[in-house]
Amino acid sequence: MKTTGRTTIADVARLAAVDRAVVSKVLSGDPALRVRDETRRRVEAAATTLRYRPNFHARGLARARAGAIGLLVPSGNPLMVAVIAGAEEVAAARGLLLWTASHEGELTERYLRLLRSGAVDGALVAGLRAGYDADELFHDPRVPTLLVNRRSVGAERWIILDDERAARVATEHLIAQGHQRIAWAGGPAGVDTAERRQNGFRDAMAAADLWLDPSWLISADYTPEGGVHAVSQVLRSPEPPTAIVAADANEGLGVWYALHQRGLRVPQDVSLIAIHKLPAEDYRLPAMTCVEMPLRELGRRAVELILDTPWDAPIRETLQQEIRISRGATVSAPPPGSGPASMTAYIEQRPGG
After folding, report:
1. Strand (E) positions, 18-106?
2. Are 75 and 101 in contact (CB under 8 A)?
3. Which residue, 23, 41, 47, 42, is CA-closest to 33?
4. Helices (H), 162-286
5. Which DSSP letter does residue 133 get?
6. Is 276 left (phi over 0), alpha (psi -120 to 50) or beta?
7. C-beta of residue 227 within 8 angstroms of C-beta of residue 246
């Protein structure tokens, strides 16, 4: 057994009696690796015994110098807290700093200069707007880059959540409660996440053979203001829905507020479910019914991928993690007699209707 000098991956492989490639994949957490649990434990034990520290920079970030990973997130979005926490967890475990900054939906020249200055060894970018041409950045060997829950023109390196499935789960939950008239308060037109979530909503409605009024498909921002706008559009319909799916929890807050302003009770008059769960939702009385997404795991996996993948290798991964309903208090069965005509009359007679 080697006792002096720098321990190498070959030393670990020799002690564990496996090939060096197996050691590399076990210690990097390669999801494609298929080995017996006993082999995996033997490799991990050998690495611990030899105090082996993987040189992740040499494998994934061959030119790493700064010892830091950059994470750019959309400004003012509380959902990013969990993503940042997961990214920090993995970065710290591998001896790296996580440098975080916010942006307004695009990578300005200021950010491009910063990324190329050598301040960070790689960049994770969340929340780019649709239509951003990533060719210039994503084909630059100076800045290994990975999009986080967003795909973009020219980018072949991304990790996303299963947003379509989340929207299906949300819609199916309402259908199971007996709702047939369901509206969609969606995200900005053309944004990758918004399109994927709307596809999931449409699929669930079609699978249940439910008619979808085109006026119930609303594009808005992932903000409370976007939710207010969505409600103002939905309630213009002569036959309003009995339930609304909000494509984002921040937007869901605006939907809830706007319904209250119209004199409609949630869920007695209109049920509401949102995708994602806000950090403080457990402390709200009553809590909003949400579809929880693995945001922390998204941050963790993003750092693992950018560290362990050569800068010019494609990354196209959809995170397959549990998606579940957070049982809030904003979903119930449709109100009795909530047919189109009676619902319209009800709204008209309520204050602000």
Report:
1. 68-74, 97-103
2. no
3. 23
4. 163-176, 192-207, 224-234, 249-261
5. -
6. left
7. yes
Q: Counting every residue, how long is the chain?
A: 353
Strand order in the sheet with 324-326: 217-219, 182-186, 243-246, 271-275, 289-292, 324-326
* Residue 330, C-beta contacts closer than 8 angstroms, at least 6 positions apart: 256, 266, 267, 271, 272, 273, 286, 287, 288, 289
pLDDT along the chain (353 residues), means of 10: 62 90 77 81 88 55 66 84 94 88 67 70 78 58 82 84 97 97 93 94 96 92 95 90 96 97 95 92 85 95 92 88 89 78 43 47
Q: Tell me the pTM.
A: 0.74
Question: Quick one: which of 178, 125, 352, 141 has its CA closest to 261?
Answer: 352
Which residue is associated with the tokens 């991928």? 305
Token readout for 125 is 């970018």
Tokens matching residue 54: 């993987």
Q: List residues bridging with 126 in a β-sheet.
A: 148
Q: Are 122 and 302 in contact (CB under 8 A)?
A: no
Give the torsion sign (CA, 123, 126, 127, 129): positive
CB 246 within 8 A of CB 275: yes
Residues 208 and 331: their CA atoms lie apart, in Å, by 19
Structure tokens at 45: 């034990």
Q: What share of the chain is helix, strand, coil (3-state, %, to 5)?
A: 40, 15, 45
Distance of CA 250 to the CA centre of its chain: 14
3 state SS of 106 = coil
CA atoms within 13 A on the CB side of 124: 29
